[in-house]
Here is the input.
Amino acid sequence: MSVLVYVEQVDGKFKKSVFEAVSYAKSIADQQSTNLTAISIGNVDESELKTLGQYGASKVLNVSNEQLQHFVNQAYASVITEAAKKENADIIVLSNSFSGKGLAPRIAVKLKAGLVDGATELPKIDGGKFTVKKSAFSGKAFATVEISSAIKVIALNPNAFGVKESGAEAVIETFSPEVKSTDLAAIVKEIVRATNKVSLPDAEIVVSGGRGLKGPENWGMIEELANLLGAATACSKPVSDADWRPHSEHVGQTGIAISPNLYIAIGISGAIQHLAGVSSSKVIVVINKDPEAPFFKVADYGIVGDAFEIVPKLIEALKAHKG
Here is the structure.
């Protein structure tokens, strides 16, 4: 038996969440006294693939197929399933990213495997029981799930597990499974990504604004603060609904769910729908002039005051510190 980890690439490069998933999968492989194999789909340079060895992968299956250059959910799930069978893998690990959330259940069905999505800790094996802690109820709670199936699929939440380097070198192996036409009934023709911006799902720090900013003309200080912190920018649903900010920045139950190390909410009251998408953040800082704002109940740090006075001072302090 072995462990298999799917490594998602973007424009031929791996993001931090991939190295987290590989580090997590390597720790599981060590628990099981077995090897870790990674599978990459798409055009990725061999030098980039070899970096996976630094985080514990002893072998990398490289799938380079013209039909699979863009993410195709069903086809990718079939390829990863075939890789799991080839490697006799009984544990398959993915990042609980946008694509991972679609792949994990499909792979589990194909392999007749148990599934834990949103894992936050390493599995625990006690008396033959295999249990995994995961986020639940839109990040408002945790659940411990026991998987009793022979094959297990685990999707790891971003920023839930630290990156660990082992210093080894991975062997690159070409893998060319058959791609069925039925798996390509729906394909992606083009992907347009925002450039020069930190991706929200991958961001370690997020600065977010709400209706308390009064209008889109006041967003400059949010962007300036984010730039100083190397953070992504986000917003609440009413802000995106009013077209103050693009919908791609909307975080919450009906937007993007995030789990950064630091989430700074400015002028956001903290309705339950918004909290559902950000409550997995490790540290939450709230700036709001309403001392009764619901957000203060879940905040690690809270500042009661006018954002138009506090944020400029915070920017000034950060500039002085960097200077």
